[in-house]
Design brief:
nine-stranded mixed β-sheet; methyltransferase; 39% helix; EC 2.1.-.-; 10 helices; alpha/beta; transferase; single chain
């Protein structure tokens, strides 16, 4: 990812550590687990977690029996992830992976594409993932949806604030979201463009999965996630809707999967 001074300052506040571990962010985490567990090879297999933050995904992958190496450009993230049992963590950039060709069974990019505003950089990151994964191996990338900021600012009650509203609609126009609160930009994908980026990286036939559906916008989503039975029903409901084309843009995030051609 592009580690600007603003990006580094944001992540060094350690705000990423709890994002998927509490509140409605758990819906994104559990849905990511749901999709990946259906697509990953059976453990033990080697997974490269690129831009893996403090290890929120590496932790459950290791618990499932995978051999996980995490790469991240933020020293605090590398330190935190490296303290997790069974996780190997070191610095790394998604566009220049410090890993041999065909050395992983799966490569995950569950964050780096958010911070690569230039299409050429995103294709480079995906091309690097293709190089590192074995023939037939899985490449998975998360993207933020183009319309997420409009939906989220209304959900959070921030849409009435002119700077927030202007930034959200700017992202709809060109994909670049300049957060008034954090001072750095992120890239928000149109749901259709990620397939072309995968193809240009030598990963044809990419499949897209809506992670949260509309459920992340529900006011009582936290209550549903706290209740094991209601949580199961919600996850099952979104699994049934995850690949409906007309609903892909409603999710906050997409997960896109492809396999390196043999």
């Amino acid at each position: 990812m592009t580690v600007t001074r603003e990006v580094r300052a944001y992540y060094e506040q350690d705000r990423e550590h709890g994002r998927l571990r509490a509140g409605r962010g758990r819906l994104e985490l559990w849905r990511t687990q749901d999709v990946l567990r259906r697509a990953l090879p059976s453990p033990p297999a080697r997974v490269l977690d690129v831009g893996g933050g403090t290890g929120v995904h590496a932790e459950w992958l290791v618990a499932d029996g995978y051999e996980v190496e995490l790469l991240d450009p933020i020293p605090l993230h590398v330190e935190r992830a490296g303290a997790l049992a069974g996780v190997t963590a070191r610095p790394g950039d998604a566009r220049d992976l410090p890993a041999p060709d065909a050395s992983a069974h799966a490569v995950l990019l569950l964050g780096p594409l958010y911070h690569l505003a230039d299409r050429a950089d995103r294709v480079t990151a995906l091309t690097e993932a293709r190089r590192v994964v074995r023939p037939g191996g899985l490449v998975a990338a998360a993207t933020i949806n183009r319309y997420a900021a409009v939906h989220d600012t209304i959900h959070l009650g921030l849409y009435t604030q002119e700077p927030e509203r202007r930034a959200a609609h700017a992202a709809v126009t060109d994909g670049v979201m300049l957060s008034p609160g954090h001072g750095f930009s992120a890239y928000f994908h149109d749901p259709d463009e990620i397939v072309g980026e995968f193809a240009d990286a030598g990963l044809p036939g990419a499949e897209r999965y809506g992670l949260e559906g509309a459920f992340w916008l529900y006011g009582d989503v936290g209550d549903w996630l706290d209740d094991p039975e209601r949580r199961r029903l919600m996850l099952d409901a979104q699994r049934a809707l995850e690949r409906v084309p007309s609903l892909l843009g409603v999710s906050g995030h997409l997960l896109t999967l492809a396999r390196r051609p043999a």
